[in-house]
Amino acid sequence: MAPSAPLSIDAIRSTLATTALGQILYLYQDLPSTNREASSLAQQGAAHGTLVMAEQQSGGYGRHGRAWFSPPGFNIYCSLIVRGKSQTVPLAQWLSWVPLVTALAVAEATQQVAAIPLALKWPNDLLLQDRKVGGILCESTLTTTNGPIVIIGIGLNVNVPLQSFPAELRPIAASLIEAVSQPIDRNRLIAQLLWELEQCLDELQSHGAARLRQAYLTRCATLGRQVKVLFTNDQHIIGTAETLSADGALQVRPLSASPRSHPPALIEVHAADVIHLRE
């Protein structure tokens, strides 16, 4: 399969309906990492809503520095500069919700543009038929003068055929093209993604996370599942993911040591890798 139509700033602007996000666009044929480029631009004073895109990444990465498969011409690799924070939501809660609402916005945009329903895997993955089709990586810097700067990195497999994935990724990775009969317009998808994300961030800023939490719960494939939670200190728990707290933490009830004992208390997971266990 040939690569899809190339990314184009003019094509994105032709359907862009935002007031801030994506009003300044940078498009590169190749970058080591859009997140690193956006971070550099942010430190130089780039405006809120500035978007950095690349047709391919030579050093794309996800959480914990894991390599992100980034072939040219098929997918979306972009990073957005977000400045400031909500006056109605505590900073820690706002920061914890940004990656969740970004995943929600990507899912909504994909539904609108390609009629493909995606599920969300807490905290930052997008799933197509239980395989990973995209991921979100947020990196924040606190500044003393203008509040926080958050770089929102989005990687989404759009038109790359499954046979192009490395062999070790094929059982666990997916591409949107699997669910449709023709290549998806990435330019329109980026414009819709930016609009959906602007609505989500405005909602978070103005009204907090209550309605966004409900929308996230509706799409979240992690809830009700038995999961293994891997913490950064090499500790882990196995239990059932029950719901999300008000600040976006995953609430997991560990497996009981004895069927006759009282159910263990919920554990709030704020940062960890979550593995969906087979049912």
Short description:
By secondary structure, the chain is an alpha+beta fold.
Mind telling me which CATH architecture of the largest domain this is?
Answer: 2-Layer Sandwich
**Global shape:** globular
Whole-number radius of gyration?
19 Å
Q: Please give the alpha-carbon distance between the first and last residues.
A: 35 Å
CATH class of the largest domain: Alpha Beta
- Within the largest sheet, what's the order of strands? 1-2-3-7-6-5-4
- Tally the structural domains: 2
Describe this structure in words.
The chain has 279 residues and is of the alpha+beta class. The chain folds into 2 domains: 9-219, Bira Bifunctional Protein, Domain 2 (BirA Bifunctional Protein, domain 2); 226-276, SH3 type barrels. Helix content is 26%, strand content 28%. It contains 5 helices and 12 strands. The protein has helices spanning 9-15, 34-43, 91-114, 186-207, 210-219, and strands at 25-31, 51-57, 76-83, 119-121, 125-128, 131-143, 147-156, 226-230, 236-244, 250-254, 267-269, 273-276. It has a 7-stranded mixed sheet with strand order 1-2-3-7-6-5-4. It has a 5-stranded antiparallel sheet with strand order 11-10-9-8-12, with no helix packed on it. Strand 4 (119-121) and strand 5 (125-128) form a beta hairpin. The longest helix is centred in the middle third of the chain and has 24 residues, at 91-114. The radius of gyration is 19 Å and the shape is globular. The mean pLDDT is 91.
